[in-house]
Amino acid sequence: MDELETAAGMAAAVASGEVSPVELVQRSLSRVQLWQEPTNAFTQLLFGAGLEEAHRIEAQVVAGEAVGPLAGVPIAVKDLFDLAGSDTTGCSLAYVGNRAVADAPVVRRLKAAGAIVVGKTNMHELAAGATNLISACGPTANPWDLSRITGGSSGGSGAAVAAGLCAAALGTDTGGSVRIPASYCGVVGFKPSFGLVSTRGVVPLSWRLDHVGPLTRTVEDARILFEALRGFDPACPDSRRSHAGDPVAAPIDGLRLGVLRNFNDEPVEPAVAAAFADALRVFERLGGKIREIALSSYDSVGARRAALLRIEADAALIHADLYEQQPERFSPAIRGYLDYGARASAVQLARAERLIDIAAAELERAFDELDAILSPATPQPAFAFGADPPDNQNAFCLLANFAGAPAISLPMGKTEDGLPLGLQIMSAADCDGLALRLAEAYEKAAG
């Protein structure tokens, strides 16, 4: 890959004076002019402010001043993140005019590292879905095949990175919303451990399950963005410091890599199964020890129902005031979502929460025997507009949200039709560095 197609390569070239950040932002703009109409990846373009920031960073480099690890790198943020002076809409008509007065802390962190925000990206309305088909800004098309979806809810971020419109983008992940579009769009999507990246200044979907994470073109870029994003935020109720070791440089040889038998009953397209079998062989060649393991009481169908109920109830509370005042400003699909959540009984919610807690505890115990768990990221590649969405898009993603464990999706080949497929690597909570290390090793070995 051309070094100027990655965040790491761009930042190194800017720091050395080989390329101007102004050139990088202008190149991003020229690509957006070509690809925005067919993909609909962006909801707001911010190239005026981006060019101003690029000139400022360029002056720093010329003056010999130190610049950050993302200096001059064009990035985008999902339209759930507060960006001072811009609307935070969640791609819902209900929030048009919701002007942010300050940047979300994670946006501030990326800017402090030198990144340049060039726009906000399209998404499934209020992050309440995995397709990106429901959006007040219109659906998002997959750059690999414009007749197919991107997945969601961070679909605009996935499309923007896949098409090279920016080097990286922020997304949110409540049940796979970073990893699903990463899988469908052929990019890297990383969901860090719960609480290591602040969610303040980000419209929530479910406090219990929400995570913030980057979508990038390489695992190295995901690691660089994670290091810039992570940090304790005392004003964020869910923020915490990591207390576990983070074995970034751990060797692959001898690591215990698990495959969950619980996932065997999920319908998986043959191309995904074949690519995953190839991925396991790559890890075996690297010295990993593959073994099957089962979670004694985990049922993926029941888990999806429990997660949906928990998310719907949280969303109903989060948006209650505006929904009561102006329900017509929410799409029919989202109104049904919020209505169902509002009607959930205490007994139903307690049952759902108990199922989530049990699943999380079982996964944590599994990591007493394993260093990481491998699976496809999604059971299928991106499907066509007009097709019935499969009900198991997030079947392999939910466990990481339940347990707050880090999980990364990265490319593991393509179908015969050239559609990307995703591999998921999940490690124990606070072992983010291990998940990234395994992903980098696979990326290098598999090419």
Summarize the structure in words.
With 447 residues, this protein is α/β, with parallel strands linked by helices. It has a domain at 3-229: Amidase signature (AS) enzymes. The chain has 14 helices and 13 strands. The strands form two sheets. An eleven-stranded mixed β-sheet has the order 1-3-2-6-8-7-12-13-11-9-10, with helices on both faces. A two-stranded antiparallel sheet has the order 4-5. The protein is globular, with a radius of gyration of 20 Å. The N and C termini lie close together (10 Å). The model has no long low-confidence stretch (mean pLDDT 96).
* Low-confidence segments: none
Q: What is the CATH superfamily label of the domain at 3-229?
A: Amidase signature (AS) domain
Q: What strand order characterises the main sheet?
A: 1-3-2-6-8-7-12-13-11-9-10
How much strand?
A: 15-25%
Question: Secondary-structure element sequence?
Answer: HHEHEHEEEHEHEEHEHEHHHHEHEEH
CATH topology annotation of the domain at 3-229: Amidase signature (AS) enzymes
- Share of helical residues: 25-40%
Shape: globular
Global mean pLDDT: 96
> How many DSSP-defined strands?
13
Summed up, the helix count is 14
| CATH class category label of the domain at 3-229 | Alpha Beta
Distance between the termini: 10 Å
CATH structural architecture of the domain at 3-229? Alpha-Beta Complex
Structural class: alpha/beta
Rg to the nearest angstrom?
Answer: 20 Å
What does the largest sheet look like?
11 strands, mixed
